[in-house]
Amino acid sequence: MKTATLLRTSLPQFHGMAALYRLDPPLQGHAHVVVSALEAPHHDPEAGGTSMHAETYIYGADADGVLADPAALPGSTAGTLDHRVVLLGAGYEATA
Q: pTM for this structure?
């Protein structure tokens, strides 16, 4: 079973709800990832301008939560703020 172990939820350098996880096995070479969930503005002409939408992304990081690469990893998903959903999408079960 692939696991994502929650290490820390206090990551002041990120907006929204961000947490550091240790992955076993690593995802694309990343043993640690930051999962960041937030409501972001989205240009939506049909809604009359701008609307807010949920997005949750997985980023490769070091053990301190510093991003190793700004590119989002597989499992990153728009439409949810749930860390467990995106981790499952990447093939990992979140554990405390």
A: 0.89
